[in-house]
Amino acid sequence: MKEDLLHYIWQFKKFAVKELKTVQGDLVEIITVGQYLQQQGPDFFNAQISIGGQKWAGNVEIHINSSDWYVHHHETDKNYDSVILHVVWEHDVEVLRSNNSELPVLELKKYVDTKLLESYSKLAASKSWIYCEKELNSLNSFVVDNWKERLFFERLERKAKPVLELADATNNDWEAVLFCFLARNFGLNSNGEAFFALAKSVPFSIIRKESHNPEHIEALLFGRAGLLDGDFEENYPKALQAHYAYLKHKYTFDVYHPVPVEFFRHRPDNFPSIRLSQLAMLYNTVQNLFSKIIAAQTPDQIYDVFKTQVSPYWINHYRFDKVSPPKRKPLSVSFINLLIINTIVPFKFAYAKNRGKQNHEELLGLMQALAPEKNTVIDKFRYFNMQVNSAYDSQALLQLKKEYCDNKQCMKCAFGLEIIKN
Questions:
Q1: Cβ(210)–Cβ(247) under 8 Å?
Q2: Nearest residue to 132 via CA among 422, 342, 376
Q3: DSSP 8-state code for residue 330
Q4: CB-CB contact of 339 with 182 (8 Å)
Q5: 25 vs 366: CA distance, rounded Å
């Protein structure tokens, strides 16, 4: 028996509610089970229960065994003085309140249908990947669609939180916030934090002033990334060194120790040098980037905004002083899609939320128009016959796997509850 199942049984009254008696022999009538807030303190707040003909209003605490009351030291916690009923699976010891009066205990195992326990045991049995993998293709489509939407917005709320925090720290300088989070995602997983740190280290007012000069903005980004340290043979990196020295003197930058960037194990097109040049050229060639992103509502409109590539030097380079065969290096559609999923949609969501507005339909339409992500988690869901048709689906399922499946939160998952119910 697990406590999350007991919470489910109590919350949805999945037991014989008539003829209930406490272990002390008093009749129990449940008027309301209380609110399941999942916060510190008792499990269910503001319940109304008649015990032995006396109506009580207060809180309900749930444990597997009565003795867990003492294991969790509730007897010394004043938050539990308001408990009117102790609901347990098995009663193994009497529980006393702080005034030494005995707490009424309802032992649930006497009143729960064994079929429910069998359903839960079947769901919780060890599987090759996730508990409900074999039942996924039999789920009600209405339940699937509603739960996916909830999961998508849960994930979006999580992604939007750091955006809102940085907006608050910058007095709602949304252009600066956008620059920082675009930088993070240009860095991908391995260099994201390094790019984010360097973006925050440069006041956006300087980016705005210098963006008209491609060499100046590259010098800023490469210099803050620590990529201009050392001696170079070619003229271009030497020129960037000179530009960076001039800009540091002009703006009197704070001392900054760059987070090292990684080249190892990257495809050349994802080298930090290439991504930094693309980011620099984006700000050099696109005016009013913030306004254009906020206004864009379709992938094609966003693709038009991000039609940029590297500066001329990087057409035949991947690293300083190392010539390579010439190749245009524009932002690919797949890379822009990652920016839309991981930066633009959370940013637009956070910006609307900050202004007290809602743009759910716009964001749903945008994500549903994008191809789903390709990774092992999504491949597994497809293997078990879960439909994944768009980035909206893949984001919802990634949230499901990370926050529910990996943490064994079946009783908080609409899929798990549906399987047990049926």
A1: yes
A2: 422
A3: B
A4: yes
A5: 60
345 and 218 housed in the same domain:
yes
Mean pLDDT over residues 291-308, rounded? 97
How does pLDDT run across 186-230, given as a tens digit for each residue? 999 999 999 999 999 999 999 999 999 999 999 999 999 999 999
Whole-structure pTM value = 0.84
Structural element, H or E, at residue 269: none
* pLDDT tens for each residue of 37-57: 878 889 999 999 999 999 999
Tell how far CA 46 is from the center of its chain. Answer: 31
User: Are 296 and 309 within 8 A, CB to CB?
Assistant: no
- What's the CA gap between 166 and 385, in Å, rounded? 40
Confidence of residue 147 (pLDDT cuts 50, 70, 90): very high
Instruction: Indicate the angle between helix axes 235-251 and 214-224, nearest 10 degrees.
Output: 80
Q: Is residue 402 part of a domain?
A: no
Angle, CA 382 vertex, CA 376 and CA 383 arms, to 5°: 85
Structure tokens at 392: 């909206």
- Whether residue 117 lies inside any domain: the answer is no
Same domain, 329 and 218: yes
pLDDT reported for residue 181: 98
96 and 157 fall within a common domain: no
| Same structural domain, 86 and 24 | yes
Flag whether pLDDT at 271 surpasses 90: yes
Q: Does residue 81 belong to any structural domain of this protein?
A: yes
Q: What is the CB neighbour count within 10 angstroms for residue 60?
A: 23
Same domain, 305 and 190: yes
Distance CA 210, CA 229 (A): 21
For residue 98, is pLDDT > 80? no
CA distance 311 to 344: 24
Does 351 fall in a domain? yes
CA angle in degrees (0–180, nearest 5) for 162-166-169: 140
In sequence order, the β-bridge partners of residue 364 are none
How far apart, in whole angstroms, are the C-alpha atoms of residue 141 and residue 365?
Answer: 20
Residue 226 sits in which domain range? Answer: 153-368
Using pLDDT thresholds of 50, 70 and 90, give the confidence band for residue 126: low
Rounded distance between C-alpha atoms, residue 230 and residue 237, angstroms: 10
The domain boundary, picked from 112, 134, 165, lies at 112
pLDDT at 253 (0 to 100): 83
Domain end position, chosen among 112, 130, 161: 112
